[in-house]
Amino acid sequence: MRCPAPPRSVAALVGQCAYVSMRALWFKRPLVVLGGVGIFFYFGFFLNRGSVTSWTGGGETHEAVRMSRSFSDLEASLSNLTNIIRAFEKKQDAIQKMVEDNRERRAAELGQKQNKQPEADAQEEKKPPKDSKSSKVFPNSPLFKQWGENLSEDDQREAQDLFEKYGYNVFLSDRLPLNRALPDTRDSRCLKKSYPKDLPSLSVVLIYLNEALSILKRALRSIIDRTPKDLLKEIVMVDDNSNNENLKGDLDSYVKMLEQQHPTVRFVRVRHTEQRGLAYARASGWRASSADVVAILDAHIEVHDMWAEPLLTQIKGDRTVVVSPVFDRVNFDDLRVIRYEPAAHAFDWALWCMYEGFTPDYYKLKDGSLPGKSPSVMGIFVAERKFLGEVGVLDEGMRVYGGENVELGIRVSDRPLSGLGSKPFACAVNHDVDPTPKVWTCGGSVEVVPCSKIAHIERYHKPYMRDLGPAMKRNALRVAEVWMDEYKHNVNLAWNLPFENHGFDIGDVSERKKLREKLKCKPFKWYLENVYPKLDPWDDLVAYGGLKNINASMCIDQGPQPGHTPIAYPCYYYGPQITYYRKSGELYVGGIKSHKYNDNRCLTDVNNKDTEPGLYPCKEAMQKGMGIYWDFTQGKTIKNRQTNRCLEIKNKKLLIQECSGQVWEIQNLIKPF
Ligand SMILES: *[C@@H]1O[C@H](CO)[C@@H](O)[C@H](O)[C@H]1NC(C)=O
Ligand SMILES: *[C@@H]1O[C@H](CO)[C@@H](O)[C@H](O)[C@H]1NC(C)=O
Ligand SMILES: *[C@@H]1O[C@H](CO)[C@@H](O)[C@H](O)[C@H]1NC(C)=O
Ligand SMILES: [Mn+2]
């Protein structure tokens, strides 16, 4: 799973949420969104937009190291423009502050609960670390920010080595019991539910690449211990060409031992001889499976008690529903479990995943144990095996990482998102009716099931590749090409790529297009209107990019942040200077939001004697009577409709004044305006 930090508390949904790993908690700082509609990550926006080249955004890891690497590349390429560099340094300070804030919040959070670990099933091979006073060998390592206080220097070195290799605390994992207890983070109503006896059988698919042995063992252990014997048919382990040695012999002997202890469970091993990426690995696990239902999971997880029954019950009631458990976060450093609130799995136009509130209908029922409909999945999902095959499993033409989950979400969403999950049927079993439909549509829907919980490590960095950006972009462009019809260019906009000649070879999509035709899938417009109306279609956008004043030869820039005063600046055509002009006359500076619940920042004539322009959330600006609508055509003046004053530059200052005839040029035209 690749998504960013999900909501951590109920408050998240009513107001606030914490994480996108899909953008990780380090940089996606969740903001309070009133009305319970969603969650937004203002900073992530800047990052994604901001990086023309190397910033990967998203993922479980926006770490400072990578940040500064991206920024120093940038600085190098702009080395002759010292003032611009200064601006970016300022930005880095802001980022730093944000990181500190997050750390403080984290510290507070960690102070809250300790999970008790049982003594049993400890891993004998290693003793707990000794208590001895020693200084920090890696004071700047994220691993030691909250953890490892009393480790000897040798142990610190070992722990740091392992952390750098795996992205989580393997040193600690090696010393925790494989069957450690997890806190019960479910809604209390879940404990009172009962589930049908005759549920479909289950294949659990674990995909992994260079996972630590003890993490993988703990995942296996938890699945075996916490899935009813009569439901768990098999565990399919897909190794996407790992190169760590202990995933060979040591893992084999562990699996052999499990096989002997649990003769009813079939263990299937799939090994790729080259790295094929997440989508292919998940699909090859699906191919190797044979039970009624497949659960396709990451291998850095532990399932909670009763995780399978609620999911299987939903699928028993409706074989076309693709379900997801709710993921709790396991910290990469101390491996503690942090409760996440159930939330819908959503995405933005860059196809980064993120959490979002369910629809208002859902919350009206005031029962957080009920399944909720979701526009997409995060990556981990559970589906009826044959149904998944009928609708095309996953797009195996995707590479490395990202996009495949959104593609699945779009593909199987065939019903309006009413906000409610399907009602579990008491007995009507339809998973074994004739599964060969005459004409199948892109049928189905996605649900998040709160009574099913899986603890998932949000890794500090991922093993797939140093920079996931190119793969993300490529896969997103694939999704756009196959599924998004007239909206496909929104993906280019979100990644700041030109519509044509974007430089990515997206591979052959003809099979996926054929699939779409064969399944008679509904148009993307239908999906937007019925399943995911929160996504802003951006359909009245007419131009975007840097906006240059021809007379002064300078660009508009969002100016110091936080702040409300855009400025004139030498053009560098980067995040803070990217503007979006809407047919309505709204002009955004410094970014555009993917979701309707997130307000954009409108250029305003604040309508008083003060001659500086403003940059305010559009709704707020409207309420305060500021002018947010501008008349503009390419190479002409930018004139406020309300005040008839113009946006101009005088002595290198951005002003609003009586029109003197200065003209502007915007970088990219989307349609004539
Ligand atoms: C900076 O470099 C660009 C080309 O890389 C050049 O066109 C421009 O004149 C340079 N600016 C200054 C101030 O040296
Ligand atoms: C580290 O050692 C000190 C003194 O022995 C003790 O007070 C403290 O609780 C220890 N910290 C941890 C995290 O074990
Ligand atoms: C600004 O530049 C445009 C195009 O070069 C020119 O037609 C116009 O007269 C200039 N306006 C002012 C006020 O200098
Ligand atoms: Mn994951």
TrEMBL record:
The chain crosses the membrane at residues 31-47. It holds the Pfam family Ricin_B_lectin. It is an enzyme of class 2 (transferase). Its main location: Golgi. GO terms for cellular component: Golgi membrane. GO terms for biological process: protein O-linked glycosylation. Keywords: Disulfide bond, Glycoprotein, Glycosyltransferase, Golgi apparatus, Lectin, Manganese, Membrane, Metal-binding, Signal-anchor, Transferase, Transmembrane, Transmembrane helix. Its cofactor is Mn(2+). This is Polypeptide N-acetylgalactosaminyltransferase.
